[in-house]
Structures are given as C-alpha cells and as structure tokens.
Design a protein that fits this description.
Layout lengths: L2 H7 L3 H4 L12 H4 E2 L2 H12 L5 H8 L9 H9 L8 E7 L2 E6 L10 H6 L9 E2 L11 E2 L1
Antiparallel strand pairs: 1-3, 2-3, 4-5
C-alpha cells in the first residue's frame, strides 16, 4: 500500500478530537503571564487599586488599549469582582513551560472557553498539532 492510500484510510484528527482551539491569547503576555504567581497577583492588585491612575498603569506595565480591550473598563470589572484571585492559575504556556496566568476574559482578549471547559483544572490529555507546515516532512505533534 502506498502512503497516499494509507493516509486516506486513517482516522481524521478532528473526528477523534472534535473540539479545537488555537489556545488562549492575551495580547499582553508580559502582563498576564509570569513564572512567579506573586508577581502576577501584584499586577492585578495594582489594577484594582484606585490610587493608581490609568496612565500610571499604562506606563508601569506597558499596557495599551485596542478595539477589544480598554484599561479603564478592565479596572472597573476587576474592582467589581471580589473573587478575582480565583483566576490566577497555572498554565502550560508552551510545551514543558509551566507558568502562572490570569485566566479571564478581563485581562485576556481570548481565553478560549473550550480550554476552560475541557482542560483548565482538569486531568485531561490534549493533542497539540499544526494544520499546516512549510517543513518537508510532518513532525509537529505533542501530547
């Protein structure tokens, strides 16, 4: 049997794993992700602290607004969330690279609900793969 025929009769990855997600996106990793839980907790606490102005925090943490994320609105949401510390979780930032993140749509632009429902805080296995590659052979999967 040639490789093309073997490929055609194999399982389709999306049939085995029907839920797919790109992964969470913060668009501000330098702020929302850290090796040290205390550092990220301090950053979020600073956003909740009324004694800091928005411009002070923009300068201190290199934060900028975009069409989906406005610092002033984020600060209001955090101040109204008594349980904001519950969103501090460990994440696999990259393969074999455990870090802390503030996993919430308040700080992240795209936390990916699929990840929250099926991966975050669960003893689950994921397949990390690519759909396309420029490499001459396919070798891009991690479990």
């Amino acid at each position: 049997m040639n490789l093309s025929n073997e490929y055609q009769i194999a399982w389709i990855v999306t049939d085995i794993f029907p839920i797919t997600a790109l992964g969470f996106q913060t668009h501000r990793d330098h702020f929302a992700i850290d090796f040290d839980k205390d550092q990220i907790q301090e950053r979020i606490a600073d956003l909740c602290n009324s004694s800091f102005g928005d411009e002070d925090l923009r300068d201190r943490y290199n934060l900028s607004d975009n069409s989906d994320w406005k610092l002033h609105f984020v600060r209001q949401q955090l101040k109204n969330d008594d349980a904001w510390m519950e969103h501090l979780v460990q994440c696999l930032y990259r393969p074999f690279d455990w870090r802390w993140c503030y996993f919430s749509n308040i700080v992240m632009d795209r936390p990916r609900n699929e990840l929250v429902q099926h991966v975050a805080g669960k003893d689950n296995i994921c397949l990390n793969t690519v759909r396309q590659t420029k490499a001459s052979s396919w070798k891009h999967a991690l479990v």
